[in-house]
Design a protein that fits this description.
20 strands; 4 domains; five-stranded mixed β-sheet; single chain; Serine Threonine Protein Phosphatase 5, Tetratricopeptide repeat; 554 residues; Mago nashi protein; alpha+beta
């Protein structure tokens, strides 16, 4: 389940997903310079690939208490990483277009970032990546943590909602190991749960408070932005208490140690496994005598099945524990309400869950297989891009109840005329494939459907082809496969040609080599500028080698 507004995704990841200890800034003679036009690269990895290659992040820059900055304390900038994994230069503007004039300490901090070398087709490659540069405010003064017995310690974390799907809940951890969790909106377990954890875990949390010097930090870190969740951390040691309000705090100098502690409190307390249900959370509910067969059990099942972060085994465990597939209490109307169980299982690629749903009659109406339910689930499974789910639905439905391989496709043009056309279901594949926790398998599904009789060269109601889907997915293997099948790289749909759909250098080159026109741009120069902005060195080299490709439509 998507938990945060898409527009603030990078900000919230910075707030909630960082678990590395703060790096210590060590002076080095190396210093990163500003990039020049001659600093060409070979690849521009995805954010996921960048994170996977990061070995040592940029250490935080510590600034004196009371420092004021015109722009954010947290800058995200583009840097050039050489074939050894070192940062060699940076683009002198941040993610908002603000000019960056980094001082000597900041340049040396960038130089300390390390990546596992990137590769392209098995060869080390230099790359453009996005990287975080954080600045943190030092405490005004050190305030020693009160020395009290562990049983006099109480730590509470509250996370509020936002204008999106931010989970709202509160968890309190007491020194004797008692935990009180209360879930709210956009949590899988939206109720009160009480349990215990080992006191040794609480003691380690206290030690983290001490090492991070949280007792010395400000009471409020509030960024001048909107639409974000607010986090409140309350630390009570005996008769003394210290609260820290974190509203996008890292963007106004809050040390990352606060975010790290918030995340650790979630993990150690077990709240994380109730917000996004895991097997330990299921066990806590069982130990507390929770009635899985209740309407509340049905609600937990429905929400957990729709949550990307929940493993299939958790959904299976809920079903086997007796959670009903229907009968969940109606929640307040919301655009983000969890979809029906069958749809979410198909959309999230939960192939192992489908046999249980069949056995419980989810695909039936009045005791008989319902073709509409089967067809809808099959279509959604194709949209999800998970082959195992597609195959499972085909096998489970069986015989005359098998889903249809043809669907209606429609769109409205600029004059609001509706166009409808019967098309092979393969055209329901989506290049915007972030629908579940599983890798997208668009090419494998297309090949499987072709064996069932689907025409891979079919065109949608707007004229688009499967090649646009593959290009939008940045799947170069799929693009090359379809080009080999004879699909036309010039075929245009409602949103342009396949070349205009991709963000990938290799895909763009494959399409250009196959004859893709520049019809989505007014001329060669505009396309070249587009390629430069997207860090497409192979496209730029291809254009230099093919000067005849000069005009739009050529």
């Amino acid at each position: 389940m998507t938990r945060f507004p898409l527009a603030m995704a990078s900000l919230l990841l910075a707030l909630t997903a960082c678990t590395r200890p703060p790096a210590t800034l060590v002076a080095q003679p190396a210093s990163v310079r500003v990039c020049m036009p001659a600093d060409a690269t070979q690849i521009a990895p995805s954010p996921e690939a960048t994170a996977a290659h990061l070995q040592s992040e940029v250490p935080a820059i510590r600034l004196p208490f009371g420092t004021e900055r015109e722009h954010t304390w947290h800058s995200q900038l583009s840097v050039h990483v050489d074939t050894r994994g070192n940062v060699s230069c940076y683009v002198d503007e941040d993610q908002y277009g603000h000019a960056l004039q980094l001082d000597a300490d900041e340049r040396q901090a960038l130089a300390q970032a390390r990546f596992a070398p990137f590769e392209h087709e098995g060869t080390p490659a230099n790359a453009w990546v996005r990287i975080d540069l954080r600045r943190e405010e030092s405490p005004q003064r050190h305030r020693p943590l009160p020395e009290v017995p562990l049983d006099q310690v109480v730590m509470t974390l509250s996370r509020s909602g936002c204008y999106g799907t931010c989970p709202s809940y509160r968890v309190t951890v007491r020194g004797d190991g008692r935990v009180e969790y209360e879930g709210g909106r956009f949590t899988d377990v939206a109720q009160k749960v009480a349990y215990r954890i080992p006191v040794e875990r609480v003691a380690r949390l206290v030690e983290q408070v001490r090492k991070a010097d949280l007792w010395s930090l400000r009471e409020t870190y509030r960024a001048p932005i909107t639409d974000n969740p607010s986090y409140q951390l309350r630390l009570q040691f005996g008769n003394e208490a210290h609260c820290i309000v974190d509203y996008a705090g890292e963007w106004v100098g809050m040390p990352r140690s606060v975010s790290d502690f918030e995340d650790e409190l979630d993990r150690v307390s077990g709240a994380r496994g109730l917000v996004s249900l895991d097997m330990e959370g299921v066990q806590r509910l069982h130990d507390g005598g929770f009635d899985f067969a209740s309407p509340q059990g049905a609600a937990i099942l429905q929400r957990a099945s729709a949550n990307d972060d929940v493993q299939d085994e958790v959904v299976v465990a809920l079903l086997r524990a007796g959670a009903p597939v229907e009968g969940a209490p109606k929640e307040r109307p919301s655009f983000f309400a969890a979809p029906p169980l069958l749809r979410s299982a198909a959309l999230k690629g939960r192939a192992s869950v489908l046999p249980l749903l069949f056995a419980k009659g989810v695909f039936d109406t009045h005791g008989h297989r319902d073709p509409e339910k089967i067809n809808e689930a099959f279509e959604v499974a194709i949209i999800s891009g998970n082959l195992a789910t597609v195959e499972a639905l085909w096998t489970l439905s069986g015989g005359s109840a098998r889903p249809s391989l043809m669907v209606w496709d429609e769109y409205e043009d600029e004059e609001l005329r509706r166009h409808r056309k019967r098309v092979p279901i393969v055209l329901k594949l989506s290049g915007n494939h972030h629908f579940g926790p599983h890798p997208w398998q668009g090419m494998q599904i297309a090949q499987w459907l072709a064996q069932k009789g689907n025409d891979l060269k079919a065109r949608g109601a707007d004229g688009r082809t499967l090649l646009s889907v593959a290009a939008e997915a940045d799947d170069v293997a799929f693009v090359r496969f379809l080009l080999a099948q004879g699909l036309n790289p010039a075929a245009s749909g409602q949103y342009g040609t396949p070349l205009g759909a991709t963000q990938d250098d290799d895909v763009a080159v494959a399409l250009l080599e196959a004859g893709a026109p520049l019809s989505d741009w007014k001329d060669r120069k505009e396309f070249r500028d587009y390629a430069w902005e997207h860090h497409w060195p192979r496209v730029l080299a291809w254009l230099d080698a093919h000067p005849e490709k000069m005009t739009s439509g050529s």
